[in-house]
Amino acid sequence: MSRKRDESPSSLWPAIQFTVNGGSRTVRVPPMKRLLDVLREDLHLTGTKEGCGEGECGSCSVRMNDELVNSCLVPVLQAEGADIQTVEGLALNGDLHPLQQAFLHHGGAQCGICTPGMLMAAAQLLAHTPHPSATEIREALAGNLCRCTGFMHIFESVAAAADAHDAQQANEHTMEQTHHAR
Ligand code: FES
Ligand code: FES
């Protein structure tokens, strides 16, 4: 039997506006539609993945108003006016984010299903704790499950990204000092 589809004209739904990866977006969808589905189906941002669909695995994690949320548990109505970042918003001008580079170099990703959520949880951590301890990294990723890596490579990747961020800042600082000394 085919699944009955909701064919209500989208104009019947109230407009819901929010920001995704720095751009303003407006959708007209059922207000209780999951943010996860709005991102993937309506905005075609398919980087965010569904694992459990029940708030248990973290694979659908996105940053919303500077908090990490499971987008499978957020009705899009709650995103009205919010500032949202998805995994598509990590790379800048085509350059991978240090976390993405570190996951590549340290084997932090295998099948990839958990990876976008892991990256967003790690990004949330580094945004507030740029020099995390091993314990802080584990705690920050405690809500994100991975069936493939055994977690160690993921923890190493996050630590390496934090170090790379330090090195980049030190380099920028040195360049700035050189510039002022001229
Ligand atoms: S799909 Fe959202 S927490 Fe698992
Ligand atoms: S890389 Fe496969 S679930 Fe984490």
UniProtKB/TrEMBL annotation:
Domain of life: Bacteria
One MF annotation (Gene Ontology) recorded for this entry: metal ion binding
Pfam families named among the record's database cross-references: Fer2, Fer2_2
Record carries keyword Transmembrane: no
Claim: Oxidoreductase is one of the keywords in the record: yes
Class of this enzyme: oxidoreductase
Coiled-coil features, chain-numbered ranges: none
The protein's name: Nicotinate dehydrogenase small FeS subunit
EC code(s) of this entry: 1.17.1.5
Family annotation (InterPro entries): 2Fe-2S-bd, 2Fe-2S-bd_dom_sf, 2Fe-2S_ferredoxin-like_sf, 2Fe-2S_ferredoxin-type, 2Fe2S_fd_BS, Beta-grasp_dom_sf, Diverse_Oxidoreductases
Gene3D superfamilies named in the record: 3.10.20.30, [2Fe-2S]-binding domain
Keywords annotated in UniProt: 2Fe-2S, Iron, Iron-sulfur, Metal-binding, Oxidoreductase
Originating species: Candidatus Sulfuritelmatomonas gaucii
